[in-house]
Amino acid sequence: MTDVIFRILLVIGVLFNFFGCIGLIRLPDVYNRLQSATKCVTLGTCSILLSLAVKYGFSEIGLKALVAIPLLFFAATVAAHALVKGSYSFGVKLGEQSVIDEYKDHADQKKNAGQDEIPGKEDTR
Amino acid sequence: MKNIVFFITLLIFWLALTFSVSAANILTGAAASLITVLFFGKYLTGENTGKLLQPARYFWFLLFLLVFIWECLRANFDVAYRVLHPRMPIKPGIVKVELGLKSDLAKAILANSITMTPGTISVDLVGNVLYVHWIYVGSFDPAVYQNKVAGRFEKYIGRIFD
């Protein structure tokens, strides 16, 4: 029985990681790509870790896999936030399909206040 | 005092991670915990310790965990559907959400939960306003999307951490 659950979770994990990778290629801009990179890949990896915890039970490997899940959650969310904010303040524009951008006002204010210190920003645009 | 508690917690965590109780392992763990306490002990202000002893908060935390896991699963199917659909039904944009939470910890947890839920990533937090990148902006009415993005978790997190 545990073997069946282990296999099912492993397959789900690999499938979601695969979906995340497809999203990384298909979606139009960096912000949408991060959506698929954080959500699908996090669930996929969590599912793989959970399958390990099911297979090995209360042992060294199983416990480590369980501990890794919350760590992965926090690491993925904080990394996604840092990447989104960083690419916005670096000047990466939203894709053409975007319908609304309420962050622009705040970002412009910050730029005008003289906090624009990223070197080489004009060249890369 | 709080540094000692922090140190012991870290040491127990280390022992659970490494899963052995040899002298060399305990020494390594003690050294690592000591360095961590020296560097990060000052961020533990201890003003929230009283909240740890209120059982109602743990009840809300369990409830929040269930809601969070459910929303997280929905988020994954939602994004997977948008990715695999031939025409890619996306309508991305950045919206502004006002939060009713007070403490920094609660705001941080809410921002992290929003990142893990259907099609939203928190971009920046300025004071009480959270900017959220949304993969499918369903409505331009602030009251509607405020409820859609943050409303699900705000009441739970407010009861746990505020």
Question: How would you explain this protein's 3D organization?
Answer:
The complex is a heterodimer of chains A (125) and B (162). Chain A has 125 residues and is an all-alpha fold. Chain A has one domain (2-116). Helix content of chain A is 78%, strand content 2%. In chain A, α1 packs antiparallel against α2 (30-56). The longest helix of chain A has 31 residues, at 60-90. In chain A, 30% of the residues are buried. Chain B is mainly alpha-helical and 162 residues long. Chain B has 2 domains: 2-43, no CATH class; 57-161, no CATH class. Helices cover 60% and strands 12% of the residues of chain B. Chain B contains 5 helices and 3 strands. A 3-stranded antiparallel sheet of chain B has the order 1-3-2, covered by helices on one side. In chain B, β2 (120-126) and β3 form a beta hairpin. In chain B, α1 (2-18) packs across α2 and α3 packs antiparallel against α5. The chains are: A mainly alpha (125), B mainly alpha (162). Chains A and B meet through α1, α2, α3, β1 and α4 of A and α3, β1, α4 and β2 of B. β1 (100-101) of chain A pairs parallel with β1 of chain B, so a sheet runs across the interface.
Provide keyphrases for this structure:
heterodimer, A: 125 residues, mainly alpha, 2% strand, disordered C terminus, B: 2 domains, three-stranded antiparallel sheet, 5 helices
